[in-house]
Structures are given as structure tokens and as C-alpha cells.
Amino acid sequence: MSKMKYSRNVMCEVMRVVPPQQGTFKEFLTDFTYAGYTIPKGWKVYWTVNTTNKNSKYFRDPEKFDSSRYKDGEAPAPYTYVPFGGGRRLCPRKEYAWLVVLTFIHNVVKKYKWEVLSPKENVLGDMVPMPEKGVPIHLHPY
Ligand code: HEM
């Protein structure tokens, strides 16, 4: 996996631009003030990945898909790249998710040429992004 630098960079960018998980709820254990807003103890807030990952303060030209952002030595600063969350509740299975994703990519890319049948397919916004038609493809073995 550590040798799959290019694939990893591409997937990093996919997860930045279209995060598989949009965010989660957090409950405040104490009264909390942030940016002029006071949130009372016991309230819930929903934090979103996009508000950080599409913030031009952290990612230049944030709407642009550019996997070269993660080239060696150009890793995002801590807590600016958050598809897996951050801090104490960081996704505990993120390395397993990477293993599954990179193994899938390795097999598909090495064994098949693939043709996307609906290149302009819509991605529906929900708790998780869902391609409208399920991304039909034709696989042609090499
Ligand atoms: C691409 C795949 C995945 C993404 C993008 C993802 C993303 C996330 C995010 C954003 C959170 C919330 C972090 C927070 O609240 O601060 C989370 C939490 C969690 N994830 Fe994942 N996850 C993925 C795969 C998985 C897998 C494969 C598992 C289990 C096999 C898993 C198990 C969990 C659990 C148990 C939590 C709750 C952790 C806690 O509240 O302490 N995730 N994940």
C-alpha cells in the first residue's frame, strides 16, 4: 500500500471533493463559545466535512480536482483534511477503509479497461453521496 502513492493521492482528492460521509452530530458537554456564537451545554451541532475541505484558506482553488496537492512534502496541515473526522473521535477504521479502497483500485486498474456508460450521471446529495444510476460500467479484461 505504501507504494501506491499516485492512487492514494487520487483517492485523497476524491474524498476531499465528494466526502463519503458528510459530517456527524456532536453534543456539547459544557457551554461553548466559538466565533461569537454561544452554544449551551447539551445542544447538538452538526459539523460538516465540506466547510473545512472546501475552504480556500486551506486548499487553493478548492472546487478544482487536483491530486497533486498531496505530493510528498505537501500534506495538508493537521485538522484541515477531515473526510475521516479529526481528534478523539477520528474514524477508528480509516486504515482499513484505505486498504479496501486501494485493493479495489489496484485490481480494477490492473486487470480491466473500463468504460463509464453514463459519464454525466448525477450524484444525489444525501447523508452519503449516491450516483443516480449506480455508475453502470463495461469492464473489458486486458
Ligand atoms: C471511506 C470510508 C470511511 C469514511 C470516509 C469514514 C468517515 C468517518 C467519519 C467522518 C467519522 C466521524 C468522526 C467524528 O465524529 O469526528 C467516522 C467515525 C467512525 N467510523 Fe468511519 N469512515 C469510513 C469507514 C469506516 C469503516 C470501514 C468502519 C468500520 C469497519 C468505520 C467505523 C467508524 C466508527 C465506529 C466511527 C465512530 C468513532 C467514534 O465516534 O469514536 N468507518 N468515520
From TrEMBL:
Keyword list, A-Z: Iron, Metal-binding
Single GO BP term: sterol metabolic process
A GO molecular-function annotation: iron ion binding
Family statement: Belongs to the cytochrome P450 family.
The protein's name in its UniProt record: Cytochrome P450
Protein source organism: Camellia sinensis (Tea plant)
High-level lineage: Eukaryota, Viridiplantae, Streptophyta, Embryophyta, Tracheophyta
